[in-house]
Design a protein that fits this description.
Radius of gyration: 25 Å
Number of helices: 5
Order of helices and strands: HEHHEHH
CATH architecture of the largest domain: Orthogonal Bundle
Helix content: 55-70%
Length: 113
Amino acid sequence: MNIEERQIELYRTLLLEMQDVERALDELTNVCSKIFIQSNNSFITANEAAKYLGCSAANIYKLTSNCEIPYYKPNGKKLYFKKNELDEWIEKSRVPSIFETQNEDNDERKRIL
């Protein structure tokens, strides 16, 4: 292998390593963003709400247009959300387990008898 081929191979290796670093940095940025959103109890944007809830921004806009999720829209423009209200919204959609349902059925039968 001549010097030119070695240099090309070295550049390829460096490029691959730089791509790995870039992916790791993107992942770290996403993690930091989620941590910031979770620790911050003030208002968050629609994109931050989407990240927090694990859905797309388009889904957030659909939920707001159908008035299915609480939000704020000062001056009729950008949407804002409170994290604790998003948590409450999630908690309202809890589905009971089969065991809870069976216990409720048993309790109902006991009341009837």
